[in-house]
Write a structure and sequence with these properties.
By secondary structure, the chain is mainly α. The chain contains 5 helices and 2 strands; from the N terminus they run αββαααα. Bound molecules: zinc ion. Zinc ion binds next to β2.
Length: 138
């Protein structure tokens, strides 16, 4: 599978250039250059052999060694071998979720009676932000 530069860039940026399995920082310009510092490949989170697609939401940047050693096993188990459970999605994306979650939380608490409203809005905003931040589509 060949990817054009724009697609590679989008895949790379999804995880802020981190390997989605071991979180090592990768080097965009060393795409496919095995042996180079930060060399990486596009990894199918769900292997094609298991019905995974070439859609962007199934594609992640991974070190060449992670990608090759993962082979046919699941991303979850490859990640667990490195002590991680989640995709290291870009902070941009998480922060956007946090803002959205916070806004929803604040709005929800506007329906609380006035004496408690301010405190409730703050609590709601924080809870919403935390929930929003932890939301990671995978
Ligand atoms: Zn890795």
């Amino acid at each position: 599978m060949k990817f054009d530069n724009e697609t590679l860039d989008r895949i790379f940026c999804r995880t802020d250039g981190q390997c989605h399995i071991c979180r090592k920082q990768l080097s965009f310009s060393n795409y496919g250059k095995a042996g180079s510092r930060g060399a990486w490949e596009v990894e199918h989170s769900r292997p094609r052999s298991r019905g995974g697609t070439d859609h962007l939401n199934n594609l992640y940047a991974a070190c060449i060694s992670c990608n090759r050693s993962k082979g046919n096993s699941s991303t979850a188990s490859a990640r667990a071998a490195n002590g991680y459970r989640r995709t290291p999605l870009s902070m941009d994306k998480k922060n956007r979720n946090a803002w959205a979650g916070g806004a929803v939380g604040v709005l929800a608490f506007l329906f609380v009676p006035p004496p408690l409203r301010l405190a409730a809005a703050v609590v709601g905003g924080v809870v919403g932000a935390v929930v929003g931040k932890s939301y990671e589509p995978d």
